Amino acid sequence: MRSFIIFPLSLLFSTFAYSSVNKNYQVYAEKCSSCHGLEIIEKKQKTKDQWKETIKRMERYGAKFDGKQGQILEYLVNKK
Fold first, then answer.
1. What is the domain extent for residue 72?
2. pLDDT classification of 16: cutoffs 50, 70, 90
3. Burial tier of 22 (Cβ tally within 10 Å: 0-12, 13-18, 19+)
4. What's the pLDDT score for residue 80?
């Protein structure tokens, strides 16, 4: 009985995690691709602080993130 409960819960949490990552990717793709190709960003590996600085720099260049910097940062930090 216990395994029947655990499996659906783990499926629910993994689906939620995927949904969150997918939504963060969509925001990142929409906001960042308006200025340059995403392949430039996808190749880079940076720490969270480095990505924060990059986002701030892009804002100084005129990028409009509409308050979604947190979602973009979350995607960049966790992308593989």
1. 2-78
2. very low
3. exposed
4. 80
Stretch (H or E) spanning 22: helix 2-32
- Tokens 């499926």 locate to 11
Two tokens at 78?
A: 């966790």
Asked if residues 75 and 23 have their Cβ atoms less than 8 Å apart, the reply is: no
Mean per-residue pLDDT for 2-23?
55
- Long-range contacts: 55-58, Cβ < 8 Å, 24+? 58/32
The total domain count for the chain is 1
- Helix, strand or coil for residue 42? helix
Tokens standing for 21? 């990552």
